[in-house]
Please model this.
Amino acid sequence: MEMFLSVDFHFSAAHQLPFYDGPCKRLHGHNYQLRLTLTGRPSPQDGMIRDFDEVKKKVWETCLVACDHHNLNDLMENPTAENMVVWMWDRIEPHVPGLVEIQLWETPEYCVTYRRK
Model:
């Protein structure tokens, strides 16, 4: 029986969008929400797909420590939500087996979803 497991994260960061013609071209910040979803089968030994705390620790270590309370332009030239989820995936996926989806909310109304085929 395959299941999906999701873990949510919250972090704050600043950015500016250099190629955007509008207010987001100026430096500003967001309180982001990140949701990681992975798939797997519960272990017969402990009944879990993965330890939630283990996932949380790996994501903070491999990705979010570089983002939280930082300027995202120091990490990439054009830190749109679309570019950010690809950047995040590339750092997280080698450390979180079964990763199938990342969702990033820039605001409570705006979200980008990334799934690698």
Remarks:
- The first strand starts at residue 3 and ends at 15.
- The chain has a mean pLDDT of 96.
- The radius of gyration is 15 Å.
